[in-house]
Every structure is written in C-alpha cells, then in structure tokens.
Amino acid sequence: MKKSIANWGNYPVMESDEKLFSFDDQLQEIIRTSGHFIPRGNGRCYGDASLSTETINTLKYDKILSFDTVNGIFECQSGLVLDQVLEVIVPKGWFLPVTPGTKFITVGGAVGSDVHGKNHHVDGCFSNHVIEMDVVLANGQTTTCSPQQHTDLFEATCGGMGLTGLITRIKFRLKKIETSFIRQRQIKAANLEELIRLFEEYQHYTYSMAWIDCLKKGKDFGRSILIVGEHATVNELKEQHRNDPLALPRKKSISFPFNLPSWVLNTWSVKAFNFLYYAKNFKKEINNLVPYEPFFYPLDAILHWNRGYGKKGFVQYQFVLPLHAKEGLIDILNRISDKGLGSFLAVLKVFGKQESLISFPFEGFTLALDFPVRKDLFAFLDELDQVVLRYGGRLYMSKDARMRPEILEAGYPRLEEFKAIVKKYNPDAKIRSVQSDRLLLTK
Amino acid sequence: MPTVLILGASSDMAVAIAKKFASKGYAIQLAARQVHRLQPLQSDLTIRYQQSCDLYEFDALAFNTHAAFFDSLPIKPDIAICVFGYLGENETARANWQESEKIIHTNYTGAVSILNVISNYFAARKQGAIVGISSVAGERGRQSNYIYGSAKAGFTAYLSGLRNRLFREGVHVVSVQPGFVYTRMTENLALPALLTAKPEAVGETVYKAVVRKQNVVYVKWFWRWIMLIIKSIPEFMFKKLKL
Asked: What is the pTM of this model?
C-alpha cells in the first residue's frame, strides 16, 4: 500500500509502497514481485538513503537467533532494534560494541550505515565487530559473507547503504561490562583551541565527544563541553546500586506531540539554548556516575524530537576532516556562525584510524550539525561541501539528503571499487534508492 | 510452570501474544502449519524471556488430525489461544466456492474442531482457559466482508455457548473482538490510525482478560460502542448503507 514516508530529518517526504515481511519465504516473494526496492529499517537515517517508491521494511523481521552469554556473541535478524538488543544483553553483562547516538535503529541499519559511536577512536565502526552476516541479493539468492568469506560483498555491505542486497541475519561480538553505569566526566572548554587540546589529553577514555556552540565568535569561538566516559566497575558504584549493578535504566520518555512552527528556531533561540546548555555546567569539570541511557542516548528521551524542526524538516550535515586540517574546522565554524545558522546539536568527535571501502570514518575530526530546511540552506551546504573537499574531508551518506555526486566521488577514494561490487551483486540496479540514483551509484 | 498453547502462531497477533505470556513466565507452545517458520520466534522467546518454547505442526483445516494433535502434546496447556483466521477476499469468495470454503473453514469449522477437543479435555480436568480471537466483523454482516463476518459470527456464538457450558466446570472462555489491528492481514487496507491497534495491544488485552477472567473484550475500548451503534441501526436503513 502506498504511504507517505520520510526518514528522521523529515526531508524529503515521498510516497512509497512499503512492504513488510516476517519470514524468509515472504521476503523471497516480495523481491520476486518488486520492480525495484531499497531495504529500510526504522527510518533513522536522516535523508533519502532508505527512500524509494518501493521499500522493503525489516521491522517485523526482528527475532533473536542466538546469544552466547559466555563469549558475548549475539545473532539476530536484521530488523531488531538496538533498544531491544540492550534489554537482553545488559542484564547479562554485555553491551553493544559500538552504538550511535540513538538506540532506535535496527541492527541491519547499523551495518548498512556502518555506524560509529563515541568510542570510534578505540573500537572502530560497527562492522569491525561483525563476525558474519547473510545478505539476500537482488536475484533472491542468500549469500553468507564475513571478513573471510565473500569479502567483497562484506566490505561493500558495511556502509553500503543497502545497495548490495538486503541483510537478513547478523552475528556480532559484544563488549563485556560490569555495570550498566557510566563514569562520566564533563569538562568545559572556553574555545576551540582548548577543546582540541582536551581531546588529546583525554584520548585514553573509551568514550568521548563534545557539544560545541557554533554561534560564538571572538575569544569564545568554539566554546564547548567535552564529555568522556568509561563503563563503571562494580566498586565504583554507590552502595545502593551494588547488589544489582546491571539493572536496566527505568524507561521514561516524553514525546514531542506536534511539529513546531519553523520560526521558533532562529539565531536567538539557538543562542539562548546554547547559553543555557553551557551555563548549566556551573563548574569547569563535573564527575559523576550516570546510567548508560542519558550518556549514550540523551535525545531518545524525547520521542519525535525531530518535530522540533518544524514541518519542513531538517538536514543533518556531518563531515570528517583529517587531523591536520584544523583550519578547515575553523573555516566551517566561521561560515556557520556568520550565516547565523546554528543548530542545537553540534557534535564534535575525533575518529581513530579506519580501514574501509565505503564506510564514512577516517582519522580526523568529525562535526555533525542540524539545519532546518529553508530556502537558502542548500546553496550554503554546497558552499560547505567545497570547503570540506578542499581540506580533504568527506560527508556521511546516512545523514545526507542533498550532496552532489562529484562530492561523494572526491571524498571516497575507493568509490569505483565499491560501485563495481554493487554492480556485481546488484547488476540491474533492482536495489536502488533516491539517494543512490542522485549519487549515480545505481545509474 | 503454566503453559500456553497458541494455535496459528505465525500471525503478528500470535507473536505479540506469545511475547506477552512468555514475559509473564509462561512456557509457550507454538502451533502452525509451516512449523519451520517459527524457529526464529522460538529462539527469540527462549533467549529474551528464558522460557521454554516448543513448536508443533498444526493445520486448522485438517480437522481429522486435531484430536491426534492435541493428544500428542507432551504437556497439556493451561491456556489455549485460538488465533488463526483468514480474511480472504469477499468479492472473490462471492463467486468462488473454494475461497468461501477456506474462509468459513479457517475461521469457523477449524476453530470449532480443535476447541471441541481442547474444551472437553479442560472440562474433564475442571481447569483451564480458552481464548478465541474473533472479530467485530462478526457482529453484523456488511456487504464488504459478510462471508468472513458470518464465519466469525459463528465463532463468536460458539465461544459464547462454550463459556456458558464451561462456567460450571471451572473453565474460563474469553472472546476477543480486536477491531482494526496493524497486521499482515490488514497490510493492504487503509486503516484509520485512531481506530487501529498495534499487535502488542492485542497481547496486553488477551493477557489481562485471562488474568481478570473477562468474558468479551475489545482491544480499543471504543470499538464496543462503535459496534453498539452499528448493531442498533434498523435493518431497513442498514441495508441501504455502503459499509
């Protein structure tokens, strides 16, 4: 049945015939009778990567297949949402090896986007922890791939935005934890220089990221809060938590009931928000123990927070620049601040080294920003693209809704190789999305 | 450990019901025609809830196998939930007896056949609960789905009679009238969001109804009132409506 769908940015919105399946034979039947399609999970990529006039949704294909609680190996169907994984593994003393800033993505999506987390500099991307997976190709054939088997398919599926096939089964390694708490440390940085120094100083922490105020100029340029953390040990817990150190955090969330009018977000409201956010940390440094939810998923507590950007939606812009290109970061932050296009969510993090075919991260600084959709936004983002390229950077396809194909090509040196593998497994471009067509990956 | 038997376990409602009961400490018996399809659900329930979960082949339309099927269960359930059903295409069924027959036999005859067996066992044991997932479509025949509706009407009447009979035996019978639910059965229908429940809500409703010994339950409360209104329209007017 045709319905209107959009991903997390609510931009673009399109009519799509979305089909769900619970069993392998149903999936086969859907693929056989589809003209073309793109796999889709919980719709938490931001732009158009999982949009097409025909989509195959994995959300009902969400069963846990095995869980080795001794060695921490988890196997599931691709439509399982991370939230559900956590509910099962945390009480047994395990955690996701890598998690993005929301727990509402599917495991299949985690591989398709090859997500990273606050621990990229230590643990790499999600795909670094995948032992093996099954992919149903465009011709309906199921192929098992891993770093040892059908390696080309494996590499092109990790971060390949679903273009090689539909991932059905994934087996991955978990991370051992003693408690469900995080020992968190928040340090205020007065400006960008100080923040970069702090990142270096605290790089031994497993988890780190910084919130950065993009609208500050002059001596406060780049004022920010660095947030680092480690999984807490039982000994570090307060007395009252020690008898149940792996307790799941209590579920509490509020929901954004409607789209905010688009004028609510403007330079002044964002400045006020940033002021409060920065000022709430009264002290230079805060050390505390927090449950894992507010540390990893602060925004998940507000369901539908994307509605805060209004009906027209927003675009998230995430790029990575090499470590030596600090001036590039300054250049981009300056342009944003000059334009007055600040976002509530400006997140800076340092990536570690990463070998990959098409996955986004490489060693350097990555900045993610939200911009509400408005008339002059796209020209401005095209301008930013040029700056990113000039400094040797690239953009994240999971966030993208508007990049031009030449930007992708210039940013990903192994793009031709990726395209060739896609062509091999998806020869007639039966699997395609609005994004893959726009980026000339399936045209 | 109490055990619940789910008949027609490959539907979305069945999955939700199984999860709910497993999360409350019940051992689960899943029965369906294509039993291999249920293996992932079996591992899922076992891992998530640490409950035992067994699979059994069961075909609602193979009436003559029903007694043997129930007989072969190594542990007899405390609760039996009859979830299977078939919506079919009313327009096809009007002209095609096979389609009509499939609708009638799946929703009515098959259910009566297996529940006769189970109810006799529960009655003799003087203990147990039976849940039948019927439909609001059975409350009044409408031109758009009267073949399905009439089969469900028969099932609803059967459940009501069964409840009456088994009351004295200490066996409880629940009739569930789900209303619209987002499932595979309704995937191609444009359902009004306000009136439509998620399968998980059916799981909650069924579990509560069993615990509280409710008789006839609707998943969304206002369906009771919607159906009351629909049932109270005089026939001379009703026949002119396009429902």
From this structure: 0.95
